[in-house]
Design a protein that fits this description.
alpha+beta; Ribosomal Protein S5, domain 2; Alpha-Beta Plaits; 2 domains; eight-stranded mixed β-sheet; about 25% strand
Length: about 350
Protein backbone atom coordinates (compact mmCIF):
# COMPACT_ATOMS: atom_id res chain seq x y z
CA UNK A 1 0.00 0.00 0.00
CA UNK A 2 1.32 3.47 -0.88
CA UNK A 3 2.39 5.49 2.11
CA UNK A 4 0.37 8.69 2.58
CA UNK A 5 1.91 11.33 4.76
CA UNK A 6 0.06 14.16 6.46
CA UNK A 7 2.36 16.97 7.44
CA UNK A 8 4.08 20.12 6.35
CA UNK A 9 7.39 20.86 4.63
CA UNK A 10 8.98 24.23 3.92
CA UNK A 11 11.95 24.42 1.56
CA UNK A 12 14.29 27.38 1.14
CA UNK A 13 15.99 27.58 -2.25
CA UNK A 14 18.54 30.24 -3.20
CA UNK A 15 18.41 32.55 -6.19
CA UNK A 16 21.58 32.96 -8.20
CA UNK A 17 23.81 35.44 -9.91
CA UNK A 18 25.70 34.45 -13.05
CA UNK A 19 29.07 36.11 -13.51
CA UNK A 20 30.45 34.55 -16.68
CA UNK A 21 29.42 32.08 -19.37
CA UNK A 22 25.70 32.75 -19.62
CA UNK A 23 24.43 31.39 -22.93
CA UNK A 24 27.01 28.63 -23.12
CA UNK A 25 24.74 26.52 -20.88
CA UNK A 26 22.25 25.99 -23.73
CA UNK A 27 22.32 22.41 -25.08
CA UNK A 28 22.25 23.61 -28.70
CA UNK A 29 25.52 25.40 -27.98
CA UNK A 30 27.34 23.21 -25.48
CA UNK A 31 26.65 19.96 -27.29
CA UNK A 32 28.73 21.39 -30.14
CA UNK A 33 31.31 23.52 -28.37
CA UNK A 34 31.13 22.72 -24.66
CA UNK A 35 30.07 25.31 -22.12
CA UNK A 36 31.28 26.90 -18.90
CA UNK A 37 29.43 29.05 -16.39
CA UNK A 38 30.74 30.72 -13.27
CA UNK A 39 28.01 31.78 -10.87
CA UNK A 40 26.94 31.80 -7.25
CA UNK A 41 23.88 31.11 -5.17
CA UNK A 42 22.96 34.15 -3.06
CA UNK A 43 21.14 34.85 0.19
CA UNK A 44 17.85 35.76 -1.54
CA UNK A 45 15.44 32.87 -1.51
CA UNK A 46 12.32 31.24 -2.90
CA UNK A 47 10.21 29.42 -0.32
CA UNK A 48 7.82 26.56 -1.02
CA UNK A 49 5.41 25.29 1.61
CA UNK A 50 3.51 22.05 1.05
CA UNK A 51 0.92 21.05 3.62
CA UNK A 52 -0.41 17.54 3.04
CA UNK A 53 -3.87 17.58 4.56
CA UNK A 54 -6.55 15.26 5.75
CA UNK A 55 -9.62 15.64 3.57
CA UNK A 56 -11.13 18.86 4.95
CA UNK A 57 -11.80 20.56 1.60
CA UNK A 58 -13.77 19.65 -1.50
CA UNK A 59 -10.87 20.42 -3.83
CA UNK A 60 -7.74 18.30 -3.63
CA UNK A 61 -5.20 20.99 -4.53
CA UNK A 62 -5.01 24.51 -3.18
CA UNK A 63 -2.22 26.58 -4.74
CA UNK A 64 -1.25 30.08 -3.67
CA UNK A 65 1.28 32.28 -5.50
CA UNK A 66 0.45 35.63 -7.13
CA UNK A 67 -3.02 34.16 -7.52
CA UNK A 68 -5.05 31.40 -5.87
CA UNK A 69 -6.13 28.17 -7.52
CA UNK A 70 -8.46 25.48 -6.13
CA UNK A 71 -8.73 22.35 -8.28
CA UNK A 72 -9.33 18.62 -8.08
CA UNK A 73 -6.80 17.45 -10.67
CA UNK A 74 -3.30 18.65 -11.59
CA UNK A 75 -4.27 19.13 -15.24
CA UNK A 76 -6.74 21.82 -14.15
CA UNK A 77 -3.97 24.03 -12.74
CA UNK A 78 -2.94 27.15 -14.63
CA UNK A 79 0.54 27.30 -13.07
CA UNK A 80 2.59 25.37 -15.66
CA UNK A 81 5.40 24.14 -13.39
CA UNK A 82 3.14 22.90 -10.59
CA UNK A 83 0.79 21.33 -13.12
CA UNK A 84 3.66 19.48 -14.82
CA UNK A 85 5.31 18.34 -11.59
CA UNK A 86 2.09 16.99 -10.06
CA UNK A 87 1.08 15.30 -13.31
CA UNK A 88 4.39 13.46 -13.60
CA UNK A 89 5.43 12.98 -9.98
CA UNK A 90 5.37 9.37 -8.84
CA UNK A 91 4.71 10.38 -5.23
CA UNK A 92 1.46 12.25 -5.88
CA UNK A 93 -1.62 10.02 -5.95
CA UNK A 94 -5.40 10.29 -5.89
CA UNK A 95 -5.55 10.31 -2.08
CA UNK A 96 -3.40 13.39 -1.63
CA UNK A 97 -4.83 16.72 -0.54
CA UNK A 98 -2.17 19.41 -0.88
CA UNK A 99 -2.07 23.03 0.19
CA UNK A 100 0.86 24.65 -1.65
CA UNK A 101 2.17 28.17 -1.06
CA UNK A 102 5.19 29.96 -2.50
CA UNK A 103 6.77 33.34 -1.94
CA UNK A 104 10.15 34.92 -2.64
CA UNK A 105 12.50 37.56 -1.28
CA UNK A 106 12.83 39.31 -4.66
CA UNK A 107 10.56 39.91 -7.65
CA UNK A 108 10.02 37.23 -10.25
CA UNK A 109 11.34 37.71 -13.80
CA UNK A 110 14.20 39.92 -12.58
CA UNK A 111 17.14 37.84 -13.80
CA UNK A 112 18.10 35.89 -10.69
CA UNK A 113 16.71 32.49 -11.68
CA UNK A 114 13.71 32.55 -9.36
CA UNK A 115 11.49 30.42 -11.61
CA UNK A 116 14.04 27.61 -11.57
CA UNK A 117 14.58 28.05 -7.84
CA UNK A 118 10.85 27.46 -7.46
CA UNK A 119 11.00 24.29 -9.58
CA UNK A 120 13.91 22.96 -7.53
CA UNK A 121 12.24 23.88 -4.23
CA UNK A 122 8.91 22.37 -5.26
CA UNK A 123 10.47 19.06 -6.29
CA UNK A 124 12.60 18.93 -3.15
CA UNK A 125 9.55 19.58 -0.96
CA UNK A 126 7.45 16.86 -2.61
CA UNK A 127 10.16 14.25 -2.16
CA UNK A 128 10.97 15.21 1.40
CA UNK A 129 7.29 15.23 2.33
CA UNK A 130 7.49 11.48 1.64
CA UNK A 131 10.77 11.17 3.51
CA UNK A 132 12.75 10.67 0.31
CA UNK A 133 16.15 12.35 -0.05
CA UNK A 134 17.31 13.25 -3.53
CA UNK A 135 20.81 14.48 -4.33
CA UNK A 136 21.33 18.00 -5.73
CA UNK A 137 22.28 16.38 -9.04
CA UNK A 138 19.03 14.44 -9.19
CA UNK A 139 16.88 17.46 -8.26
CA UNK A 140 18.68 19.69 -10.77
CA UNK A 141 18.26 17.17 -13.57
CA UNK A 142 14.57 16.72 -12.84
CA UNK A 143 13.98 20.48 -12.72
CA UNK A 144 15.77 20.85 -16.07
CA UNK A 145 13.61 18.06 -17.50
CA UNK A 146 10.40 19.76 -16.28
CA UNK A 147 11.26 23.24 -17.56
CA UNK A 148 13.22 22.51 -20.72
CA UNK A 149 11.87 19.16 -21.91
CA UNK A 150 8.27 18.90 -20.74
CA UNK A 151 7.32 22.60 -20.79
CA UNK A 152 9.66 23.51 -23.68
CA UNK A 153 10.68 26.77 -21.99
CA UNK A 154 13.69 28.40 -23.65
CA UNK A 155 16.73 28.71 -21.44
CA UNK A 156 19.93 27.15 -20.24
CA UNK A 157 20.68 24.77 -17.40
CA UNK A 158 22.65 26.89 -14.94
CA UNK A 159 19.71 28.21 -12.89
CA UNK A 160 18.47 24.79 -11.79
CA UNK A 161 22.00 23.61 -11.01
CA UNK A 162 23.00 26.61 -8.90
CA UNK A 163 19.68 26.49 -7.03
CA UNK A 164 20.15 22.81 -6.21
CA UNK A 165 23.87 22.90 -5.34
CA UNK A 166 24.49 26.40 -3.95
CA UNK A 167 27.95 27.87 -3.54
CA UNK A 168 30.38 29.80 -5.72
CA UNK A 169 30.68 27.36 -8.57
CA UNK A 170 32.02 26.58 -12.01
CA UNK A 171 29.72 24.35 -14.05
CA UNK A 172 30.93 22.48 -17.13
CA UNK A 173 28.47 21.48 -19.86
CA UNK A 174 28.88 18.94 -22.65
CA UNK A 175 27.14 15.95 -24.28
CA UNK A 176 23.76 16.62 -22.64
CA UNK A 177 25.31 16.55 -19.18
CA UNK A 178 26.96 18.78 -16.62
CA UNK A 179 29.69 18.66 -14.01
CA UNK A 180 29.76 20.92 -10.95
CA UNK A 181 33.08 22.20 -9.61
CA UNK A 182 33.00 24.27 -6.41
CA UNK A 183 35.44 27.19 -6.61
CA UNK A 184 37.71 27.11 -3.56
CA UNK A 185 39.36 30.43 -2.81
CA UNK A 186 40.80 31.88 0.41
CA UNK A 187 38.20 33.33 2.75
CA UNK A 188 39.58 36.86 2.55
CA UNK A 189 39.26 36.88 -1.26
CA UNK A 190 35.79 35.38 -1.16
CA UNK A 191 34.73 37.97 1.39
CA UNK A 192 36.25 40.80 -0.65
CA UNK A 193 34.46 39.64 -3.79
CA UNK A 194 31.18 39.33 -1.95
CA UNK A 195 31.59 42.76 -0.37
CA UNK A 196 32.32 44.36 -3.75
CA UNK A 197 28.94 43.40 -5.21
CA UNK A 198 25.92 45.68 -5.42
CA UNK A 199 22.64 44.73 -7.08
CA UNK A 200 20.50 47.63 -8.32
CA UNK A 201 16.88 46.93 -9.17
CA UNK A 202 16.19 48.93 -12.32
CA UNK A 203 12.72 47.52 -13.00
CA UNK A 204 11.46 46.32 -16.32
CA UNK A 205 10.93 42.71 -15.30
CA UNK A 206 10.61 40.52 -18.36
CA UNK A 207 10.35 37.03 -19.78
CA UNK A 208 13.87 35.68 -20.17
CA UNK A 209 12.58 32.99 -22.55
CA UNK A 210 11.51 35.58 -25.12
CA UNK A 211 14.93 37.25 -25.08
CA UNK A 212 16.85 33.98 -25.14
CA UNK A 213 14.94 32.60 -28.10
CA UNK A 214 16.23 35.52 -30.19
CA UNK A 215 19.71 35.66 -28.69
CA UNK A 216 20.48 31.95 -29.16
CA UNK A 217 20.17 31.73 -32.93
CA UNK A 218 23.10 29.46 -33.67
CA UNK A 219 22.57 29.79 -37.40
CA UNK A 220 24.40 33.10 -37.07
CA UNK A 221 28.20 32.55 -37.07
CA UNK A 222 28.73 35.92 -35.37
CA UNK A 223 26.65 34.82 -32.39
CA UNK A 224 28.65 31.64 -32.10
CA UNK A 225 31.78 33.76 -32.09
CA UNK A 226 30.44 35.96 -29.27
CA UNK A 227 29.45 32.90 -27.24
CA UNK A 228 32.91 31.42 -27.65
CA UNK A 229 34.38 34.69 -26.42
CA UNK A 230 31.98 34.63 -23.44
CA UNK A 231 33.12 31.07 -22.70
CA UNK A 232 36.76 32.15 -22.86
CA UNK A 233 36.02 34.90 -20.34
CA UNK A 234 34.60 32.27 -17.97
CA UNK A 235 37.84 30.31 -18.14
CA UNK A 236 39.85 33.50 -17.60
CA UNK A 237 37.70 34.35 -14.58
CA UNK A 238 38.30 30.92 -13.03
CA UNK A 239 42.05 31.29 -13.45
CA UNK A 240 41.83 34.75 -11.91
CA UNK A 241 39.80 33.56 -8.90
CA UNK A 242 42.21 30.70 -8.18
CA UNK A 243 45.41 32.71 -8.74
CA UNK A 244 47.62 34.31 -6.11
CA UNK A 245 46.33 37.83 -6.78
CA UNK A 246 45.76 39.98 -3.72
CA UNK A 247 42.13 40.62 -2.77
CA UNK A 248 42.26 44.24 -4.00
CA UNK A 249 43.89 43.25 -7.29
CA UNK A 250 41.36 40.45 -7.75
CA UNK A 251 38.42 42.85 -7.41
CA UNK A 252 39.95 45.28 -9.90
CA UNK A 253 40.63 42.64 -12.53
CA UNK A 254 37.38 40.75 -11.91
CA UNK A 255 35.36 43.94 -12.43
CA UNK A 256 37.22 44.80 -15.63
CA UNK A 257 36.67 41.29 -17.01
CA UNK A 258 32.98 41.42 -16.15
CA UNK A 259 32.75 44.68 -18.11
CA UNK A 260 34.29 43.05 -21.20
CA UNK A 261 31.98 40.05 -20.90
CA UNK A 262 28.94 42.34 -20.67
CA UNK A 263 29.99 44.15 -23.86
CA UNK A 264 30.19 40.78 -25.61
CA UNK A 265 26.84 39.59 -24.29
CA UNK A 266 25.11 42.75 -25.52
CA UNK A 267 26.02 41.73 -29.06
CA UNK A 268 23.88 38.58 -28.92
CA UNK A 269 20.59 40.47 -29.23
CA UNK A 270 19.37 44.05 -29.33
CA UNK A 271 16.81 43.04 -26.68
CA UNK A 272 19.43 42.29 -24.04
CA UNK A 273 20.05 45.96 -23.30
CA UNK A 274 18.38 49.27 -24.11
CA UNK A 275 19.25 52.94 -24.19
CA UNK A 276 17.98 53.34 -20.62
CA UNK A 277 19.97 50.36 -19.37
CA UNK A 278 23.11 51.58 -21.13
CA UNK A 279 22.71 55.00 -19.52
CA UNK A 280 22.29 53.47 -16.05
CA UNK A 281 25.34 51.28 -16.59
CA UNK A 282 27.39 54.27 -17.69
CA UNK A 283 26.21 56.14 -14.59
CA UNK A 284 27.57 53.30 -12.45
CA UNK A 285 30.96 53.38 -14.20
CA UNK A 286 31.24 57.14 -13.81
CA UNK A 287 30.49 56.80 -10.09
CA UNK A 288 33.34 54.30 -9.67
CA UNK A 289 32.01 50.82 -10.53
CA UNK A 290 34.67 48.64 -12.16
CA UNK A 291 32.25 46.66 -14.27
CA UNK A 292 28.92 44.90 -14.21
CA UNK A 293 26.15 43.26 -16.15
CA UNK A 294 22.45 42.68 -16.14
CA UNK A 295 21.51 39.57 -14.22
CA UNK A 296 19.92 36.87 -16.32
CA UNK A 297 19.02 37.11 -19.98
CA UNK A 298 18.78 40.90 -20.02
CA UNK A 299 16.10 43.48 -20.73
CA UNK A 300 15.62 44.60 -17.13
CA UNK A 301 15.61 43.40 -13.56
CA UNK A 302 18.81 43.64 -11.52
CA UNK A 303 22.01 45.37 -12.55
CA UNK A 304 24.95 43.62 -10.87
CA UNK A 305 27.98 45.84 -10.21
CA UNK A 306 31.52 45.26 -8.94
CA UNK A 307 32.52 48.26 -6.85
CA UNK A 308 35.72 48.89 -4.84
CA UNK A 309 34.99 49.69 -1.22
CA UNK A 310 36.14 53.31 -1.50
CA UNK A 311 33.57 53.95 -4.26
CA UNK A 312 30.66 52.08 -2.74
CA UNK A 313 28.92 55.11 -1.24
CA UNK A 314 29.34 57.13 -4.43
CA UNK A 315 27.74 54.38 -6.52
CA UNK A 316 24.85 54.03 -4.09
CA UNK A 317 24.31 57.79 -4.18
CA UNK A 318 24.36 57.73 -7.98
CA UNK A 319 21.38 55.38 -7.83
CA UNK A 320 19.33 57.37 -5.34
CA UNK A 321 15.71 56.44 -5.89
CA UNK A 322 16.60 52.89 -6.92
CA UNK A 323 16.71 49.91 -4.61
CA UNK A 324 20.34 48.87 -3.99
CA UNK A 325 20.97 45.50 -2.37
CA UNK A 326 23.99 44.00 -0.67
CA UNK A 327 24.27 40.26 -0.95
CA UNK A 328 26.11 37.27 0.40
CA UNK A 329 26.99 33.99 -1.24
CA UNK A 330 24.89 31.04 -0.12
CA UNK A 331 26.92 27.89 0.37
CA UNK A 332 23.90 25.57 0.42
CA UNK A 333 21.39 24.71 -2.25
CA UNK A 334 17.72 23.91 -1.71
CA UNK A 335 17.05 22.66 1.81
CA UNK A 336 14.28 22.05 4.33
CA UNK A 337 13.89 24.74 6.95
CA UNK A 338 10.78 23.29 8.60
CA UNK A 339 9.24 19.83 8.74
CA UNK A 340 6.44 18.39 10.81
CA UNK A 341 4.19 15.41 10.22
CA UNK A 342 3.38 11.78 10.73
CA UNK A 343 2.91 8.79 8.45
CA UNK A 344 -0.46 7.17 7.98
CA UNK A 345 -1.28 4.07 5.99
Amino acid sequence: MTLSRQGIIITQTPSRISFFGGGTDFPDYFNQFGGTVIGAAIDKYVYVTINSLERFFEKRIRLSYSKHEFVDRPEELEHPVVRCILQTHTHFDERDFLDIHTFADLPAASGIGSSSSFSVGMLNALYLLRGIYKTPESIAKEAIWVEREKLKEAGGWQDQILAAYGGLTRVHFSNDSFRVEPICIPLDKKQALQDSLIMVFIGGVRSSAQIQEKAMDLNDPMKIGYLQQIQAYAQEAFEMLTSDLSADKLIKEFGALLHRAWLAKRQLSKNISSQTIDQLYERALQAGALGGKLCGAGGGGFLLLVVPKEKRLAVQQAFEGYKCLDLKFEDHGSKVIYSKGSDKL
